[in-house]
Amino acid sequence: MIKKEQPSAFDRCFNRTARRIGKVNTVFEEVRIHILRGDMAGAHEAAFEFADQTERLTLLARVLPEYSGHPKAKARVEDAILKVFPIQIGFTEEGWFCLKFPALMPKKNRGSPAYISDPLYPAMARFWRGKQPIRYPDNVIIFRHVYHRDRPERQYRDHDNTELSMILDIVALYVMADDSPMRCRHYYCSASGDGDRTEVYVVPRTEFTEWLILENSMDGDGVPLYENKPEKGKKHM
After folding, report:
1. Cβ neighbours of residue 13 under 8 Å, at least 6 residues apart?
2. In this structure, what are the phi and psi dihedrals at residue 196, rounded to the nearest 5 degrees?
3. Pairing label, strands 88-91, 184-193
4. What b/e string do you get for 176-214 counting C-beta neighbours within 10 Å, with b at 16 or more?
5. pLDDT of res. 163
């Protein structure tokens, strides 16, 4: 009796990806049908399901090349992720650490946190390569949700978001001595700007009032970021 050859890990991932593509196409067609029927409530709900299925497909697309056995698969996938989802990382003139995501965080219970962690881990590792970690002993981590100024305020999201906790865990690896509640306070705010994005700041607790004053004057793309932490009292020219 000839033993049937088992599918490889690459084959299994490919087959899962093919099934997911079918689901994405099906849900997208549901959006179209609801629109043609004039059922916008149904179209909106189907659009959320389409976003969820597409994110799941994206995660499969990210791991499929690694199953090929190519020695540079992981690095090339990271390059592709950061090209599509570029994350700005650096320090403000005041010496505060900052991240800028080119999107709002997904709504709670929608999508996968891996959508954020997959680009953030390599982006942070690349930024800190060759640098000494910065340890703020007593800090405030600030999540600033920036909405395109044409977006109605009713579409602003609440600040209860599981992805924010995951971001905190990754940021803490590089810039915090301790992320316990007694050493790391959280602050959340929303603002309007030139486009949707999420900004994350790590600010010493004693300088939080200074950040609040600066936030009132932030507009456009927000404050500029620099590769290295400036010395206190010295501004970049």
Report:
1. 60, 63, 64, 67
2. -75, 135
3. unpaired
4. beebeeeebeebeeebebeeebbbbbbbbeebbeebeeb
5. 63
Contact assessment for residue 60 and residue 17, using Cβ atoms and an 8 Å cutoff: yes
| Domain chopping of the chain, boundaries | 1-77, 85-237
Residues 13, 18, 22, 28, CA torsion sign: positive
pLDDT digits (tens, 9 = 90+) for 30-86: 999 999 999 999 999 999 899 889 988 988 998 999 898 899 998 999 999 889 888
Instruction: Give the residues across from 199 on adjacent strands.
Output: 100, 144
- Reported pTM: 0.75
**Cα 158 from Cα 144, distance rounded (Å):** 12
Structure tokens at 177: 């001595």
pLDDT band at residue 237 using 50, 70 and 90 as cut-offs:
very low
Tell me if 89 sits within 8 A of 99, measured CB to CB: yes
Are 198 and 76 in contact, with CB atoms under 8 Å apart?
Answer: no
Q: pLDDT tens across 13-45, in order?
A: 999 999 999 999 999 999 999 999 999 999 999
| Residue of 121, 117, 91, 122 lying closest to 106 (CA atoms) | 117
**What is 67-114 written as a DSSP string?**
GGT-TTHHHHHHHHHHHHS--EEEE-TTS-EEEEESSPPPPTTSS-TH
Tens-place pLDDT, residues 203-213: 999 999 999 99
DSSP 3-state percent helix, strand, coil across the chain (nearest 5): 45, 15, 35
